[in-house]
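User: quick one
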Amino acid sequence: MNRETFIECVEREQEALRGFLLALCCGNRDEADDLAQDALVKAYLACSGFRDGGKFRSWLFKIAHNTFLSHKRSLQTTESIDEARMLVSSSATDSDFEHQSLYLALRTLPPKERSAITLFYLNGYSVKEIAAITETSQDAVKQQLSRGRDKLRERLKL
Amino acid sequence: MTKDKALEELFLAQKPTFDDGAEFMAKLTKRLDAVEYFKQYQERVLRRNRIVMVAAFVVGILSGAVSTAWLLSSPIDTSLFDIQAPTGLLLWIVRNSRILACVCLSTLMVFCTIAFVNNILDIMDMRLKIKEMRIRAEKR
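Assistant: Done. Structure below.
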C-alpha cells in the first residue's frame, strides 16, 4: 500500500476511528485525536505489511486499540468517578454528546471492557471480530461484554 | 451474543460527528511528511555507514597486503628488535615480532581510516545542517 492509497483509505475511515477513540477516551476530544494521529502514524509505518484482502477498518481499530492501551498503561490512571465528572464537564469534552452520562459510565469501566463495549455497541462488530481486534479469545470478549453491560446498566439506571 | 437494545440505542443516538475532517487530515499529512523525512534520513545514514564500512574494509585489506609483502620481502632470520632477558612470553614476542608488527600496523591503519572517514562525514553533515538552518531562518 503506497502513501496515496493509505491517505485515501484513512479519509474514508477517520470518522469511525475518531468516534471509537472518543468513546474510549470518554469524551476527551483532544486526547482522542492525539491518539488517532499516533495510531495512524503507526499504521502508516506498518502499512507495507497490510494485505489488500484484509479489512482496513478492523486493522486500523486494532492499532488504535493497542495505542490506547499503551497510552493508558503509560498514564497509570487511577481516576475516580469524581475526576471523571470533572473531566466530562470541562470544555475539552465533546460538546456533541448530549448525554454525557454515557461517557461518565464508560469511564468507570476497565480499558479492555470499554473497548469491547464500544466496538460491540458503537461500531457494530461481532464477538469474533472484537476478539481479532483486541487479540483475545471469544470467551474473554463475551465475559468483558457481559460485565461491561451489567456495569453500564447499573450506572445508567437502564 | 445478543445486544442490549437500550444500550445500543443509547450508543447510536449519541454517535459523535466530526466537522473538522480536513483539518485532521492536514495535521496527519504533516506528520506523515515528518515520518518520511526521518525515514529518508535513516536510509541516508545507513547508506553512509555501509560506504564507510566498505572503505575501511578495502583499506584494511590493502594495508594488510602491503604489510605481508613487506614481511615476506625482509630477511626472516633477523628479528625486528632484541630483548636481553628472553623469558617465555618475551621470547615468543621476539621470535614473532615481524608478524605482530604487521598485525598491529594493519589494525591501527583500519581504525585510523574509520575515524578519519567518520570525521569527514560528520563535518559534511554539520555543514548540511547549518545550511538547512540558514535556509529556514531566511524563510522566516
